[in-house]
Amino acid sequence: MALKSTIHKADLQVSNMDSNYYAAHSLTLARHPSETDERLMVRLIAFAFFASDSLAFGKGLSDDEEPDLWQKDLTGAIELWIEVGLPDERVLRKACGRSDQVALVLYGGRNADMWWNQNSKALLKLDNLTVINLPDTEELANAATRNMNISCTIQDNEMLVTHDAGSFTLLPSVLKTFN
Prior knowledge:
The chain has helices at 37-49, 89-98, 110-123, 138-143; strands spanning 6-16, 21-31, 55-57, 69-72, 78-84, 99-107, 129-134, 147-155, 158-163, 166-170, 173-176.
């Protein structure tokens, strides 16, 4: 018998002073049985970083042909493709061919650093790719509950995350930006 996804509800407040985006989002996240709380929360943080009214969660781990998040225009063309974690470099190349822009949100500390060292040469050639590394995501797992109230304030590329049990700061490192 196959395990089913666990549904998480999140009321997310985004105040992004860097891009002048301020909005509240009521989100439903399906946590794949193989997904950790940390990865689930990194997907939520990726949503906050790239938030827009048309950004949506894809099937991610359940379907190799869909990203973790994406934004499409009214014709269905993919404007933004967002991957989370340490994907195969071929997946990113394919995404860059299918989308106007691609963003990768790395996490996992030393594992992410080693992955970037192994793949950076090939990825630096992709003009429409941005790579962001979240070095300290352990606290994110503690914020994961089935019903979450999360507030993300972004200023000067720093994110203050406030949740029901406390708050912490994320300091993302931009390894590559769109050209």
